[in-house]
Amino acid sequence: MATEILMPALSPTMEEGTLAKWLVKEGDTVSSGDIIAEIETDKATMEFEAVDEGILGRILIAEGTEGVKVNTPIAMLVEEGEDAASATVDSAQSQQPAPADKTLTSESAPAAAKTHPEPDLIPDWPEGTELRQQTVREALRDAMAEEMRRDGEVFLMGEEVAEYQGAYKISQGLLDEFGSKRVIDTPITEHGFTGIAVGSAFGGLRPIVEFMTFNFAMQAIDQIINSAAKTLYMSGGQMGCPIVFRGPNGAAARVGAQHSQDYAAWYAHIPGLKVVMPYSASDAKGLLKSAIRDPNPVIFLENEILYGRSFDVPKLDDFTVPFGKARIWREGSDVTIVSFGIGMSYALEAAEKLAEDGIDAEVIDLRTLRPMDTATVIASVQKTNRCVTVEEGFPVGAIGNHISAVLMQEAFDWLDAPVINCTGKDVPMPYAANLERHALLTTEEVIDAVRKVTYR
Amino acid sequence: MAARKTTPKPNVSSEELTQFYRDMLLIRRFEEKAGQLYGMGLIGGFCHLYIGQEAVVVGLEAAAEDGDKRITSYRDHGHMLACGMDPNGVMAELTGREGGYSKGKGGSMHMFSKEKHFYGGHGIVGAQVPLGAGLAFSDKYRDNGRVTFTYFGDGAANQGQVYETFNMAALWKLPVVFVIENNQYAMGTAQQRSTSTPDLHTRGEAFGIPGEVVDGMDVLAVKVAGKTAVGHCRAGKGPYILEIKTYRYRGHSMSDPAKYRTREEVQKMREERDPIEHVRIMLIEGKHASEDDLKAIDKEIKAVVNASAEFAKESPEPALEELWTDIYAEAT
């Protein structure tokens, strides 16, 4: 029984090649690993090794032949005593090429949303719940402490989280309560400690990684995206990564270009991550508790300027806020302002000023960017017919751009004006106080945008 | 801490020696078959073969205990077979089929097995090193006495995150064996052209991590060194470095024209230092096995590998719905 030697594919893209040279001749004995030919691919000249043993019975493609298609028989290998001319090919060994890719048909793609899902309007806490004023900082600490009490496999690691009590005092008191096994100061090596935290999550623990700021997480972004976000998929669902990456994100004040970037759009781009960006203290608490319990990697984007602000927080034993549910802060009929994180400060302030001029704005806080509650935004725009988005990040590839695209595709017939995206300016953050003010978003810009879309 | 040389003691039973032969031969034949299937277009993309390096994983698996973990780079087929993963599942992943370990969604570089404590299969050079230390962190957190084998190459040994990891692993006394598989070429760059000091086992000295150099073409020497390293970790003394000198016969990946070394260099290694031939001679000369015994093993292995290739060809491509699954885990 003879074996065909087929023209090999010697690179990921090779479809045909040149059989440059035969290094064996008919009648030679070849064994596994012998170099039998040189083949020119689209990239280089490669040596081609024999896999099977036998006698080279017949050369089917002469050396120097160009354009030999992959999987074309180029020679016949026969067993001892076998006549090459009359040799039959063992069909079991003459393998078929890989089946062609099935093209993705439109039926298999997720059906375009023709009917819009109903927004979830259930309030975050039942009416009559006792409230207290708390800062975002205290709410974040309480969320971590409550979850660490609840689950012994939750731990916190990061720079200055333990003995220093947190660079921004978010982890105040946690070392005292939970000890150095669960509240861990790291060296200033984001790439390494992020990888260690991700590995510990593969090992079944539930780490919370504090970045002193998300600017420093760029050192570690390979581990966040390539290791944390993609492994569940790459492993066919076997190897999940329950981890929270949290810390201040975006501009603080006068800290210059390298410490002032908003990463919301960067992380929201990545399938496999969940992305949270809270504005209020109740959301900071309820969403961080949900993040710690989530079996997936969660990016939790805080803001230094918001840390000290106080909000109503419900006095409940176990208060959580689900992902993918926006919050309507203010109902209105003339325009929809969509924002998240610190952008909400500008949105709410603009809405108040606009109300003085008789423009009634609805203000929506997305709260989570992945998953994103577009249903609430669409339902609002169906009522107001106009939309302005507000965020501090850069304008190119912004979250607002994505919302505009969703509205264009799913609420086009309801729009009475183009959607305007209010964003930070397309410049690195300057240090000078006056320049910084202009580089960031202003409430005036939001008001101007609303006037444009309402033609007033 | 000074590097120590180990003197391998051939304190090994016939059964174990025969098992080493069998395990290494399985990897060799499996990889040859994978190379063949690649040539036929049944395997696509990148495919990094382990041929020549078999004694490294087989020797270290002999030093491991149940529950110990392992993690490696993209040159991972040998590690998977050595820790007992099913050749059918590995080969079917190479062909991108439903029966593969990752349902065809990972490919050659990305396979995992919770059951066998194999944590991948990672495609970014050096990224598996902190991940491996993190696995060891989880074991230390649970105080369960387990050790993680974290494999990386001489190329990855120059990555910055490796040294960040050495620092924390030593500081926190993590039970991790850093296995540097020094096959002397980082893709096409010879070690002396990329590395300022050649002794990679001394790379932990600045962090107080002991290291030793091991002959990676001698499976018995690898096992002895592995036992020392594992013992160090289990005693709570923190990480240990093994620089295992080995050699890959094939290119970096399938599309490697191998112009950076001579054919004679490869041929000399194959003829004089082949790790499987080494054990074969020990088996014959020590009268642990006859030529016929070994022929029977060869035949058996060939059948296993051929069956894996058949399985990998016959297993269907993943259903199109699989495109949309396993992106997020459901809360339990």
Describe this structure in words.
- With 456 residues, chain A is an alpha/beta fold.
- Chain A is built from 12 helices and 22 strands.
- Chain A has 3 domains: 3-78, OB fold (Dihydrolipoamide Acetyltransferase, E2P), CATH 2.40.50; 132-314, Thiamin diphosphate (ThDP)-binding fold, Pyr/PP domains (Rossmann fold); 327-454, Rossmann fold (3-Layer(aba) Sandwich), CATH 3.40.50.
- Chain A has a 7-stranded mixed beta sheet with strand order 11-10-12-13-15-14-20, sandwiched between helices. In chain A, strands 17-19-18-21-22 form a 5-stranded mixed beta sheet, with helices on both faces.
- In chain A, strand 4 (35-40) and strand 5 form a beta hairpin.
- Chain A is elongated.
- Chain B has one domain (14-287): Thiamin diphosphate (ThDP)-binding fold, Pyr/PP domains (Rossmann fold), CATH 3.40.50.
- The N and C termini of chain B lie far apart (47 Å).
- Chain B is built from 11 helices and 8 strands.
- Chains A and B meet through strand 5, helix 3, helix 4 and helix 5 of A and helix 1, strand 2, helix 5 and helix 6 of B.
- Chain A: Residues 85-128 are annotated as: Disordered.
- Chain A: Heterodimer of an alpha and a beta chain.
Label this structure with key terms.
heterodimer; A: 456 residues; alpha/beta; OB fold (Dihydrolipoamide Acetyltransferase, E2P); Rossmann fold; B: 332 residues; two-stranded antiparallel sheet; 8 strands; disordered N terminus; oxidoreductase (chain B); EC 1.2.4.1 (chain B); Pyruvate dehydrogenase E1 component subunit alpha (chain B); Pyrv_DH_E1_asu_subgrp-y (chain B); PDH_E1_Alpha_Subunit (chain B)
Output the helix-strand order of chain B.
HHEHHEHEHEEEHEHEHHH
**Strand arrangement, major sheet of chain B:** 2-1-3-4-8-7
Q: What proportion strand of chain A?
A: 15-25%
Number of domains of chain A: 3
The largest beta-sheet of chain A arranges its strands as 11-10-12-13-15-14-20
Measured as a percent range, the helix fraction of chain B is: 40-55%
Based on Cα principal axes, name the global outline of chain A. elongated
What's the CATH topology label of the largest domain in chain A? Rossmann fold
